[in-house]
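anyone seen this seq b4? input:
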Amino acid sequence: MSESTPSGTEQNPFTLPGFIISAALVLALIAAVAVIFFLPKDNSTAQPAPAAPADTSAPAAPATSAAAAGKSICGLPSSTETALGAAPRSTWELVGKMAAPTDPTTIGPGTTDEDGFRSCFAHSPTGALYSAMNVAALGSTGSPQLNAKLADQLLVPGMGRDAAIKEAAGMVAAGGSDTSAQVKGFAIKSYTPSEANIDLAFETSKGAFVHTVLSMRWMDGDWKVKPADDGVTFSGVAQLSDLSGFIAWSGV
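predicted toks r here
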């Protein structure tokens, strides 16, 4: 599977401080594709993005009784599974323009607020996958209010979360766009009961495939995203020539 890569003098848009939370997901995906398309191609083979390094900026908060029991904070069941060999049978809802999976009684989101904020997922590989995808969908709405809650409630405490909260506080509502992106596949790169790395493949409305990794941690009875110290939520963004290596999974 071939991949075009930027030259050594170019920066991937997802590494820039401005792309902090997934509010910029769609625009960043398009920007990443645009940069890659117009740079010389090489013959390197695209490899799944490596697992993100452990966040050492702050220790995990003490587990609540629900977390200690392996149950989510809203009472969803846990699972002893450590992998997914096939796509889960999912019901999808549009969150903004992006489809997100939902199974409120078993996988999550177990809690959906009046403003549309979605949280509380099962302690399982499927729960981690659903959580990652719902984070991406929430952010793609461009809502400053939802992104502020996302930064405050769904990011692991530390320097990265502090940076994301600061960035979210300065956000303005995103304008409308004719461009959108939808998930088309996933790969769980690693999973333990406390950590998971979820690789999501998207197709933009321009027909390009890109993928990115969300690094997740189980804490306080829910899955939370581990951002980089500068607040960047996504890592390892790269264009894909096809979806080889990903399990097909899509709501649109």
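The longest helix spans residues 125-139. Confidence is low (pLDDT under 50) at residues 1-24, 31-68. kinda curious what u guys think
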